[in-house]
Amino acid sequence: MNYIEASTAPPKNTGAIRLYDAQAFEGMRRACQLTARCLDALADIVKPGLLTDEIDRFVFDFGMDHGAYPATLNYRGYTKSTCTSINHVVCHGIPNDKPLRDGDIVNIDVTFVLDGWHGDSSRMYPVGVVKRAAERLLEVTYESLMRGIAAVRPGARTGAIGEAIQTYAEAERCSVVRDFCGHGVGRLFHDSPNILHYGRANEGPELREGMIFTIEPMINLGRPHVKVLADGWTAVTRDRSLSAQYEHTVGVTSDGCEIFTLSPGGLDRPGLPSHNG
Questions:
Q1: What's the average model confidence in pLDDT over 169-198?
Q2: In this predicted structure, what is the pLDDT of residue 273?
C-alpha cells in the first residue's frame, strides 16, 4: 500500500492513502462540525408525519445558510442533498413524499463540502415511540461504531476496526453488512482506503498518523444480505429485518484518533441516553 502526503497528491483517487497535516485537520474539523450541527438540529424536527423530502430541504438550506454544499447533490446522478434510510433500508434511501410513521427508525446521512473539505456523518433517529427490538439495534450499532473507533491508532491495521465491530455485533446476535464500507475522505468525498466493518486485526493497510476516513457500520437484526432496488441506490435487507447505521469521520493522531463529527450538543445518539464514547 502506498502512502502520499495529501498536499502533493493528485485530485483523484489513485489508490494511494493520503496523509494530512495539521492545517488539513483544522479544515476537516470545520466541515465535520457543520455536519454535526445539522444533525443536531434535525433531532428537533424528526417526528411522525414529517416527509423525508422535508428533511432533504432542511439539509440543503442548512448548508446554503452556512456557505456549504451537500456533497451528495448531483453526485453520480443522485438528485438529493441527503440519504434517508428507514427501517429495513440499509443505506442510500432517497428522500421522497412519504411521511415518517410512529415507530420508524431512520438514518440521516449528511456530507457538507465546506472550503473544499468533506464532513461526512450519519445518525439514527427514532420516530415517536419505537419497539424495544429497534431501540436495542440502535444501541448495538452505536456501540459497534465506538468500538471500531477505539481500535484506531498508528501501527494498527484497518482490520482491527472491522474485527472490533464484527466481534461485538455478532456476540449481540446481530449481523454486519459486507456490501458497504467506510472510506478515506478529505478533499475527496470517497478516497482510499476502504474501511471494512468485519475482518481480522492483522489484515488491511497499516494505520498512520494523518489518515482521515469514515467508520460507518451497518448492522442488521437479521441476516447480513442486502439487495439494491431498481432505482440503483436504495439498499435493503433481503429478509426485511431492521437495519441501523451510525457514522463518524475520524483522523489518526499520534496516539489514537480524533473524532471530527462528534455532536456539539451531545446528540450523537438522538432519542437515546447521551454519551460520547
A1: 98
A2: 64
Half-sphere exposure of 178 (CA within 13 A, CB side): 5
Annotated binding site: 92, 109, 120, 183, 190, 216, 247
**Which range, of 78-82, 197-201, 269-273, averages the lowest pLDDT?**
269-273
| Binding annotation for a divalent metal cation | 109, 120, 183, 216, 247
Q: Where are the beta strands (DSSP E) in the chain?
A: 3-5, 17-19, 69-70, 83-86, 89-91, 105-114, 117-126, 175-176, 182-184, 191-195, 212-215, 218-220, 226-228, 235-237, 243-245, 248-252, 257-259
Q: Residue 277 — very low, low, confident or very high, per pLDDT cuts 50/70/90?
A: very low
Binding-site positions for substrate: 92, 190
Domain range summary for the chain, segments of one domain joined by + = 23-259
Q: Are 100 and 50 in contact (CB under 8 A)?
A: yes
pLDDT at 160: 98
Mean pLDDT of 101-116: 98
β-pair type (117-126, 105-114): antiparallel
**What value does the mean pLDDT take over residues 23-40?**
98
Q: Would you tell me which CATH number, out of the four given (3.90.230.10, 2.40.40.20, 3.40.50.920, 3.30.460.80), belongs to the domain 23-259? A: 3.90.230.10
Cut 0.90: pTM above it: yes
